[in-house]
Records
---
Amino acid sequence: MTTLNYVPETGSQTAGPYVHIGLIPHQAGFDIFEKPFSNMLGGEGERIRIEGRVLDGLGAPCRDVLLEIWQANAAGRYNHPADQQDKPLDPGFRGWGRTGTDFETGLWWFDTIKPGSVVGRHGHKPMAPHVNLWLVSRGINIGLSTRLYFADEAALNATDPVLRMIEPAVRRDTLIARPEMRDGVPTYVFDIRLQGENETAFFDI
Amino acid sequence: MPHTPTEEFFQRDRTLQPPGYTPGYKTSVLRSPKLALWSLQNSLSEVTGPVFGREELGPLDHDMILNYAKTGEPIGERTIVHGRVLDETGRGVANTLVEVWQANAGGRYRHRNDTYLAPIDPNFGGCGRMITDATGYYAFRTVKPGAYPFRNHVNSWRPAHIHFSLMGSGWAQRLITQMYFEGDPLIPKDSIIATIPDPGARERLVAKLDFNASIPLDTLAYRFDIVLRGKRATLFENKLHGN
């Protein structure tokens, strides 16, 4: 008899209202680790800020959300052994960060660099520069994945295989961050709508 | 030049996961997407993920009995939690970051938004972190968390639990969950574990008392294995012309 010896994935549970304790203790109100993780990413390239809010089904800002980003470096390569593209690695750039929405304003932000374009799946066009976003919070039972694309990359966005898959333009547009100049720093604004009008396109990745 | 990741993650089995909308857990009502998720085939963005080194962690980061001790050790049942982080093929997930957080023995969190009347323990922070070894094994020490009430129904209580965050080896494996303790009578009354419809998946969140791993006259042990998504090799893939 043949048996398939797979073991099922562990079930997800909400990160809850106190996720900060475990993942960003400073926001919970204390410091404990010598080297905490942060929302400021070093690295070579064009310095940018990405920021936004997370809005619930009534349009109210969610002020207890934890967000993480994962992105390629300025050359368009991920700092991970599975990325074997023939592009330079930036040893000072892990490409990952985390933060929480502000308890008062609901704003989140990351200081990072603008990622380069990454090769697509075999047979597909390159992916336009994008930042992968993942968010969890009280009331979210399983982490939500989405992508932030840049409005000023219109040509690459037009051929991006993921954006092209999302047929209704109105839904595609929920993934495009709009640029603003803020104190000399290019800032991309990206509000995430969990539900309702202009609900952000989330991915089952 | 390699265009395709050589390994991709198995499709997530959503029948073993909680849906977004679970009205029994009221906060989910306004925070759950109503529209369908877009299913993405893995690209480099999903098969890669952040890598963490042991040198980034302090020597006590995984010891919640000592990592916030100020005037003495925290109050509570001295507890070891250990297990393996596996993927769906049963292989250990090596060198991956595991982060944990919890309430103190009285059920109070060290968090500016927690106003429960049980006292803060001055010697307990309530968070720890570690990196799995080459076999996917992890272990940490803590005090057993207490149950606490929360605002859902009038008399809603959380069973004792520890939150787990798993980084995995790629972005698509990222997972947050909660571990419960064998025999806790609050588990069947809990609105959070009930968000998972599959009884087996709920049961797998309950750590077992691991009597043999306990340290006599010192600390009880619980065993909790965690499974992240499996990977398959892309053995055969049709190549499009012109690539």
---
Amino acid sequence: MMKLRLIPAALLVALFPLAASAAEPCIPCHLEKTPAAVAQWQGSAHAKAKIGCEKCHGTDHDKMVKGEAKVGMKVCAPCHEKAYREHTASRHGMGLHSGWGCTRNLPDRKKGECRFCHQEGDETPRSDVQCARFLKQSPEMGEIGCNYCHSVEDACDSCHSKHMTDLKIVRDPNSCAKCHMGPDHPQWEMWQTSLHGTLNQSKGREVGPDCQSCHMPKGTHNVSIGITMNSGGVPYPARKGEPARADMVQICSSCHAPSFARRELERNDQVRSQSLAILKEAEQIIWDLNDRGLLDPMPSERPPHPLSGPRLVTDSQMLYEDTSHIERIFFKMKKYDYARTIKGAYHQNPAYTHWYGNAELKMDLVDIKSEASRLRERKKGGVAAPRSVEEELRVLKVKFERGALSQEEYAREKAKVLEKMR
Amino acid sequence: MSRFHLIAALFAVALLAGCAATLKGARVPEGFRITRIAGSDPSAPFDVSQSGALASVSAGKIEITDRNGNLTSIPDTPAGALCFSPAGDRLAAAFPSQGETTLRLYDAAGKMVAEARVPGRVTSLAWRSGQELLAGALTIKKFSFGSDLKSWLYRWDGTTAPAATLLADVTLRPKVARMPEEMLYNQLFIAVSPYGDEIAYSTLKDPPVFSPYLKVSIRNLETGGESEVAKTTMGAGKVAYTPDGEGLLVGDDKGTGKISLRELKKVANWPSPARSPAISPSGAYTFLDTQLFLGDRVSATFPSGSRGIFLPDGSGLALSHQGALYLVSGLNDRPAPALPSDLDRLLKLRRLKSQGLITEGEYQKEKDKGSTP
């Protein structure tokens, strides 16, 4: 039986003599154990360049079997220096690792999880940024639901696949869609259904640009060129935003007049700032409820936030679980609807900008205001009783301590409240 | 009761008790008179009521001597603390024993009317009002690495179980925990502000690389808002409120200071150390262990080891020394200032201040806008 199996292996070795010599002595066994991987490698540029298994995987077979010989980006970097440099300068290379977090203190952690961030024998993680939403996940959810995308920081194969090097794979927008889709940032869907996507489908990428045309111009691995806001949709300061805008205008100008491109982008900036104002209005309502102890449950009455403890969090570390209902609405508003509005605008998609985005955003605000009224009424017990001086002063103190009131405003507001005591 | 009646009653007590010996080593100005009025065991507690009754511990028994000289003896274990209620109709006593303390209330005739037990050793008693007794208690738990000292405040209405509040929790180094008990338990003396809304008390701190000391804090009883106001040496933990409630007398080994609760700093100083400072009802006199001051001048001196309590009307000083209780009369004090007519508003402002909802400046400004007493 073994002999029968070795015949095709021998044939393959005979057909690819150069490749076989590069991969000795792995090929005979792996033709049997992982024939697809061998076949993919044999058809790759690596095989043609005599880059064998050991060059990337090393020689410690035990570690490979245990899954501890991961081919990280530093393995690829010595040969692909330019790509590595561009990648590490981009949001793919630095920001997305923040999707992770140290699971050391979680009760159900798996030992192997440490390798998400730590090289063997290295106590220093590759990033000290942590993600509260990751820390709330089970190890299984964290792996498939978080790290499958956020591993892009250190994994070329996140886009390129593991053993194939055919650039057709990574030039296909579908390779981006694995992560850039869904309710929180449906860039793939909004591109597909935009005029750019439609033309791409009907006339090809020379007429209809795809992800790579605009975000990886001239084949760069810096996917953040031309982006003028952070991943949460907050505009960059001018010193960072203006050069990025100039880059994007130049990219658009390969098809459009620069003045047209600039005008389009500036209109979308307006949509972004208008939408951000709606978002901030909702956020202020929630903080005001928190100041008055009206959230249900209050942060002190629910499991503590993994990074901030028993405090209200509405920034990028906001959770969608173990929160009050009104915060859950705000999460959807911020992470889904605000993101869809602004990304829809920049991707030239009217439906995402308006109906999936801005309309939802405005309806969320209606819901948040309504829920806030309900919470306030409930506190009153149905009776419109005025708040006591002490309650009013306590609310002012909380507002001052979180920076919502200046020292002067705080003193002025307190004086007004104390006036009522006379 | 008028001043005349109070003094007369205490003299009557002295005469009826057949005590006329004076206090050796005392130097008092003309017009002062010292009369022995009762027995009082060394280091044992004593108190004087609003009506002139005296409570002391003599030969291990509590003795209540009323203004007519009638002596009531309460055959109990020695009390660790005694305190008359504001109206003088109740006497509270604490009896520490084996890791717990029995609190008892007696009526004017010495009949026990209520009893409760609390964990720890009660080191001081104070009445917040006629209905609420406060007791400061310490519990010590020993470990190999040191001892855990907890300071507790008990609030008792005489009917339900005392309610406990943890005031402080410190780890003592072994060498501090091995200190003599009379030193270790010589703290947590509760003083109630004239407004009845706040207490001042001292608790032991034992920082790792410094000498242990006593931290003096004030605490609003309603809000639990606390602030540290002073530090003092071990063994000098008794504090006294000034009559306006805006200051505290805090003594140490070198002298006694008046701490302004507005500015949180010492605003007056007497060169006399005080382990049990006392201040007269109007604030004119201060008794600092061996010396009676009128303002900043020494008015009288008494032998070492004297402890004193001013009579509620300011006409005299009850003084305990070497087994006897003396009355020092002839003081020319005024009554305590009346509480302001808008007391409720003032209490609200103090409550706000205790929680940090208004600043000291805002408190003073609003207070000044209120009506005067």
